[in-house]
Design brief:
The complex is a heterodimer of chains A (210) and B (104). Helices cover 41% and strands 11% of the residues of chain A. Chain A has 11 helices and 4 strands; from the N terminus they run αααααββααααββαα. Chain A has a two-stranded parallel ribbon with strand order 1-4. A two-stranded parallel sheet of chain A has the order 2-3. Chain A is globular and about 70 Å long. Chain B is 8% helix and 32% strand. Chain B starts with 14 loop residues before the first strand and ends in a 7-residue tail after the last strand. The chains are: A alpha/beta (210), B mainly beta (104). Chains A and B meet through strand 3 of A and strand 2 and strand 4 of B. Strand 3 of chain A pairs parallel with strand 4 of chain B, so a sheet runs across the interface.
Chain lengths: 210, 104
């Protein structure tokens, strides 16, 4: 197929979205270039860090959840000291303290950061866009059942909804209930049920029985 | 913590009120809990005061940080969900006081 047709007219050039940098994008570029110029960071270190951040995903948190589902003693340690439990499965928690909150037949937990978008990135990867939206952040503390309903999760009144505002130095992970019909499942297969949204608390793990 | 560590004023299970203050600057106490009462769920540890850290100061002595549980109906009188629904919020000790006189 020919790429060319006979032209005597110019085509408009589509502008790249990077053409116009915002104030903070410009500041980031300026600071990064200064740090590299002054030898404090190398471009490769910056690249590695971005690659590392983008490479994290909810599979890390799912590993902890699956372990808690098969090992009650681990689950207890995880509820007492989330960081120690993360270390046990080889995860590096960084500077923040992890609080794991357990769903039970009587309590459903859901996480938000109303002030910004605090999120356990080291366990779940980058937060979804809706988690950072003003809509989710302002409404889930005010009308959590309506918001959960919009995610397709309707809970009976007999289940208390416990919202956790991740507004300061803690980071949160919801430990969902192990779905029925998985008694014979191993840790790796179970981990596949613990999705990101289940660990934020806007969904429940699929049950193979339903 | 050093000898200068701030004493722990509140215990889990204790009822506390969030100061109804509105200082300028970087504050990590959400507006929706200010002036409201809740129950201390746990002490999380001591953390440098973010109101100072935001301006490149040290934030010391570190403030005890609690998780405080609020009944949804305490925060939003027209709350439509179940009476057992709650919100847990992290609050630094200098934002908390004894409940004192209850609102009518």
């Amino acid at each position: 197929m020919s790429e060319h047709h006979d032209h005597d007219h110019p085509h408009p050039v589509l502008s790249d979205s990077e053409d116009k940098l915002s104030y903070y994008q410009l500041m980031e570029v300026a600071v990064r270039e200064l740090l590299i110029e002054k030898g404090i960071l190398t471009a490769d270190e910056v690249r590695r860090q971005i690659e590392d951040m983008d490479g994290r995903n909810a599979g890390l948190g799912a590993k902890m959840v699956a372990r808690a589902w098969v090992d009650p003693a681990y689950k207890q340690r995880m509820l007492t000291d989330g960081n120690a439990a993360a270390e046990e499965v080889g995860l590096d928690h960084g500077a923040y303290k992890l609080v794991v909150v357990e769903n039970t037949p009587a309590v459903h937990n859901v996480i938000v950061c109303t002030l910004c978008s605090c999120y356990p990135r080291w366990l779940l990867g980058l937060p979804p866009d809706w988690y950072k939206s003003r809509n989710y952040r302002s409404r889930v503390v005010r009308e959590p059942r309506a918001v959960l309903g919009e995610f397709g999760l309707r809970l009976p009144d007999s289940v208390a909804v416990r919202v956790h505002d991740s507004n300061a130095d803690m980071r949160y992970l919801v430990l969902p209930m192990r779905p029925a019909g998985t008694d014979a499942w191993g840790e790796e297969r179970l981990a596949g049920l613990a999705t990101r949204d289940c660990m934020i608390g806007v969904a429940l793990p699929d049950s193979p029985q339903s | 913590m050093s000898a200068a560590a701030l004493p722990i004023r509140f215990k889990p299970g204790e009822r506390v009120r969030v100061r109804a203050a509105h200082p300028p600057g970087h504050v990590r106490t959400p507006s929706y809990v200010r002036g409201h009462c809740g129950i201390v769920e746990r002490l999380c540890g001591r953390y440098a005061n973010p109101e100072e850290l935001a301006y490149a100061r040290g934030g010391l002595p570190a403030q005890p940080l609690y998780r405080v549980r609020f009944a949804q109906r305490e925060l939003w009188p027209d709350y439509a969900g179940s009476p057992g629904d709650t919100v847990d919020v992290e609050l630094y000790q200098h934002w908390l006081e004894p409940p004192g006189k209850e609102h009518p």
